[in-house]
Amino acid sequence: MPRKQSFKKQSIPVPLLIVEGFTEKNYITILKSIYRKSASITNVKGGGAKSVLNEAIKAIETQQGIYSYLVVWFDKDAYDIDDHAILEQVQRKGGDIYISQPCVEHWLLAHFQSINLAATAECDTHKNTLKKHIPNYSKNDCNLLTKYITQESIQTAIDNYPAIGKLVTTYFSNRFSSPINT
Question: Positive or negative CA dihedral for 18, 8, 4, 86?
């Protein structure tokens, strides 16, 4: 009987990114374009962290051998403590977890200014501040993000928000590093 393949057996490293919404999907699409990297994106279109994590569990069970890495990205404001057991299961299976705190707009804001990572501001505050840098900002407008997100602003964001910046440096701007464990 053939041995079951793991994510890390892929000859060309291609991550599977499972994200909470359109903003994250649009942002990753921009990364793929800027850094000319391959990646597959699954957008759960809302439903919070639980939906993202459940999709990750399903991918672990069904997508092994297709992708080299499993990356999960969602907003902290969509995370409930009841989701912790699923999060730990995804991590044990080797999934790489990224949580925007409190929301993806805080990450986007880091492209344009220093941010306070310890701040407890609401997402609406970050959205309103982001509109100073991206007029008419809309979560679902990929074309609008494309006009304002550049390789230079991405480096600024990595410097300003290192935790989420690791997603960029690990899977897009640098060579792929450690694949998920199985």
Answer: negative
